[in-house]
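User: For my dataset I need records formatted as: sequence, then structure tokens, nothing else. Please produce one.
Assistant:
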Amino acid sequence: PVVQASAHYTWGHFVEFGMEGDADPFTGRGWSAPLANSQWTDGKQAHLRFQVPAPGENVELLFALRPFVAPGKLDRQRLRILVNDRELKILELTDQQANRYMLTIPGFFLQTDEIRITFDLPDAAVPAELGAGADQRMLGVSVLTVCMFPQSMTDEILEKMTTPPSAGGGD
């Protein structure tokens, strides 16, 4: 297997997936070609790698994605998230819409300057085999954005998310 080098990441940067995005340097095995503003996982696992200074504190992992579900054929998509080979959380996704999630990565998961995120997708399926379209890829989740930041930056990041870009101005 090809070992993917980590790309440099800046805390608080929103990595955008899709053709106009900047996710490519962070994606490893398990990703299909980017779409307009998202990227599907392709297979039972997908990998992300980030080179970033160890934070010395807990880190928030904020991401937006939507699962591949086919009503009556595939009702849920389980997403097991591992950070540096340690299980962080298992999500059970049933909503076809994109949703935002925020999980706390314990500081002790992050002892080096590399963060490896693995999406484990035991329910990933090929739409064509379910009679849910012609797509031959093994779809799990379609990711729109990923952002990580030390907990000490939480207020600053959440404020960025709620402030319209045009509302700039002084401090």
